Every structure is written in structure tokens, then in C-alpha cells.
């Protein structure tokens, strides 16, 4: 069952025909790709945006966030999002693949940064005026480097992104201290979330994921509880409900087909699970959202 087309970096105009990196001012990006980015979509790359002018709303997987100067959004591959933007919107945006960053480091990954390592963490932060002046310089330098033909260009861009993500991580963790603990448990949390992503349609028992990770269910639950203040079962259910919402709004499939796709042969049971976790039946959710 098809949800939405997944956008790829090569679909965007590139001054250097680079298949794994793209940068632009947001105004130029919006003017060129307005139809693509204002309709709900997802992508297979990481997206980082700084807004410096204008206002609007940004919906990411059914959570709506305000757009205003100084807001930074950091999106992972696979998230469904779209915008409502004022006419005076501007800022900076860049995309990159996982390998664009990871191939340059042997001991860490782009997913080690707190805003990327867990889907539980909010995809944005609001900069103060003095932080905006500092952080915006990185975006400007990255964008300028992208459009210039200089020696060691790729290395310079990666180095700037690494420093930018490090400084953004400092601000992010200072604003949201509750996410400091999952940062220490990043490998286990990332492993569990990836396993759930891969198997949630057919595997719904917490004990099965503990077995995949060679841990006892109690030990895994302690890790998740310490990191996210949730249970393993909570993460499984949240992933199922997120995909259910995506399918109900974007797939065009029947309610019974969506239930089967998510691993529930009994639609009535799926409907009860959905209502317990959202407060609405699937059909009610569709009407309310649309």
C-alpha cells in the first residue's frame, strides 16, 4: 500500500549536481519547489532548516509547530511533513544523506546527535537572538561553500555541518535536559527503534524485541524507562499508531485493508487499539483531520 512518494536529493536543482548534498536559501528553495514542499511529503535524507524571516506552521507526523525567526528544524529520513508559509518567509536549508556525513567518521554517526538519535525527541529548537547570530553564520558559510568551486569543498562543508550540529546539540540539551539521559543510552535506544521500524507490522510483543537484542524483557524495559520514561510496549504501540495515522490520511486504502497491512486481521480489534491510543475511531480521525 503506497503512502507518499519519497523525495530524493537528486530531484532538487543542484548547482553542482551533487547526489548526496543540497543547500539553498529558503526563499529560493520555496520559490523553486513550492508545490513539492507545501504538499505532504517525505524524503530519504536529513533536512536542516533555519528560519530568519516570516511565519507559518510546520506539521511533522501530525504534530504542528510554529514557524518564526530563530526556529531550527532538524528532520530525519521517513518523516511526513508539510508547511504553511507566509509570503515573506526566508532562511537557509540544506539536505544530506546519511553516508555524506558518516563516511567521514569511523567512531560516530549523524544519528548520535540528540535531535536525530530518537524519534521521541522534538525536531526543533528556538534560538535566542545571540544564538541566532552565531548559528546563522554556519548556514551562510555552508550555502556559500556549496555554490563556490573551491579546493576541498566537500571536506569544508562536512566540517561546518559537524560543528553546527555540535553547537545545536549543546543548545538542544540545555533546553531539554530530560533528553540528556537517552543520549547516554543512544545505541540501545537507536537499535530498539530500528528493530521496531523493521518489524512492527508482524511483531508486537516487547519480549520478542528483547530477544532480538539479547536482553531480558525487564532489562530492556529499564533502559527504555530510564531513557525515555516509557515502556518498550509504549514504543511499539506509538509506532503502530503513527503508521496507522499516515495510512488513514495518505494511503487511500480501505479501513480493513489498512488494518490488515498493520498486522491486524480483525478490524474491530484494530479499531479499539486505535481509539484507546488516540481517543477516536479510525473513521472519526479521518473526518477530524481532513
From TrEMBL:
Which keywords accompany this UniProt record? DNA-binding, Transcription, Transcription regulation
The record, for PROSITE patterns, names: HTH_ARAC_FAMILY_2
The UniProt entry, under InterPro entries, shows: AraC-bd (IPR003313), Homeodomain-like_sf (IPR009057), HTH-like (IPR037923), HTH_AraC (IPR018060), RmlC-like_jellyroll (IPR014710)
* Keyword match DNA-binding: yes
Cross-referenced SUPFAM superfamilies, in alphabetical order?
Answer: Homeodomain-like, Regulatory protein AraC
Give all residue intervals belonging to the HTH araC/xylS-type domain.
190-288
Q: Which Pfam families match?
A: AraC_binding, HTH_18
Protein name per its UniProtKB record: AraC family transcriptional regulator
| Source organism (scientific name) | Zhouia spongiae
Amino acid at each position: 500500500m503506497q503512502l507518499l512518494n519519497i523525495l530524493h536529493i537528486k530531484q532538487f536543482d543542484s548547482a553542482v549536481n551533487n547526489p548526496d548534498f543540497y543547500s539553498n536559501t529558503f526563499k529560493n528553495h520555496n520559490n523553486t519547489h513550492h508545490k513539492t514542499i507545501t504538499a505532504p511529503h517525505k524524503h530519504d535524507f536529513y533536512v536542516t532548516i533555519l528560519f530568519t524571516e516570516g511565519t507559518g506552521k510546520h506539521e511533522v507526523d501530525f504534530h504542528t509547530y510554529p514557524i518564526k525567526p530563530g526556529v531550527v528544524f532538524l528532520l530525519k529520513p521517513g518523516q511526513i511533513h508539510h508547511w504553511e508559509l507566509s509570503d515573506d518567509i526566508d532562511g537557509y536549508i540544506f539536505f544530506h544523506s546519511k553516508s555524506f556525513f558518516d563516511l567521514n567518521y569511523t567512531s560516530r554517526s549523524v544519528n548520535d546527535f540528540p535531535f536525530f538519535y530518537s524519534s521521541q525527541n522534538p525536531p526543533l529548537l528556538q534560538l535566542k537572538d545571540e544564538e541566532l547570530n552565531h548559528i546563522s553564520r554556519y548556514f551562510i558559510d555552508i550555502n556559500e561553500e556549496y555554490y563556490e568551486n573551491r579546493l576541498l569543498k566537500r571536506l569544508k562543508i562536512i566540517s561546518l555541518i559537524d560543528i553546527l550540529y555540535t553547537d545545536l546539540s549543546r543548545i538542544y540539551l540545555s533546553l531539554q535536559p530530560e533528553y540528556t539521559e537517552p543520549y547516554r543510552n543512544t545505541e540501545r535506544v537507536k537499535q530498539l527503534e530500528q528493530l521496531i521500524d523493521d518489524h512492527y507490522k508482524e511483531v508486537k510483543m516487547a519480549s520478542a524485541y528483547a530477544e532480538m537484542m539479547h536482553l531480558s524483557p525487564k532489562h530492556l524495559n529499564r533502559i527504555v524507562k530510564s531513557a525515555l520514561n516509557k515502556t518498550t510496549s509504549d514504543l511499539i504501540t506509538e509506532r503502530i499508531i503513527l503508521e496507522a495515522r499516515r495510512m488513514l490520511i495518505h494511503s487511500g486504502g480501505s479501513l480493513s485493508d489498512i488494518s490488515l497491512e498493520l498486522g491486524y486481521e480483525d478490524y474491530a480489534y484494530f479499531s479499539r487499539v486505535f481509539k484507546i491510543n488516540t481517543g477516536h475511531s479510525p473513521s472519526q480521525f479521518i473526518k477530524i483531520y481532513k
